[in-house]
Amino acid sequence: MKAIQTTGAPAAIGPYVQAVDIGSLVFTSGQIPVNPKTGEIPDTIILQTQQALENVKAIITQAGLNVSNIIKMTVFIKNMEDFAEINTVYESFFIDNQSGFPARSCVEVARLPKDVLIEIEAIAVRV
C-alpha cells in the first residue's frame, strides 16, 4: 500500500492522504473544490463541481491511471437543489470516457469542510 500525493490537487487539510494505492485499486480522499495553485474556492456549484472533479483527476493521474479507470464515485452536496447542475458538469467530465459512467452515490449533507458546496471521492481500478 502506498500513499499518492500530487501538487495538482489540494494538500490534505487533516491527518489523511490524498489517496491510497493498494495495487489493483486507488481510493481517493474526498476532494473539495480548492484550486491547488491559488487556494481559492469558486463561488458557484458549477465551478465548484468542475474544480472538485479536476482535483480527483489530478490524483488519479498521479497514480498512473485516467478517468476511464474510475469505477465508483461518491458525491457529497450541501443542497440537493444543485443536483441537476452537478449532473451537467459530471456528464461533461466523463463524456469522452470509453468505459461509460462509473457507479455513483450522491448524498446531501449538512456541512462540508471550508463550507464548500460539494466534495467528491473516487475509487479507480488498475486493469
Automatic annotation (TrEMBL):
NCBIfam families: Rid family detoxifying hydrolase. Belongs to the RutC family. It comes from Thorsellia anophelis DSM 18579. CDD domains: YjgF_YER057c_UK114_family. GO terms for cellular component: cytosol. It holds the Pfam family Ribonuc_L-PSP. GO terms for molecular function: deaminase activity. InterPro entries: RidA, RidA_CS, RutC-like_sf, YjgF/YER057c/UK114. This is 2-iminobutanoate/2-iminopropanoate deaminase.
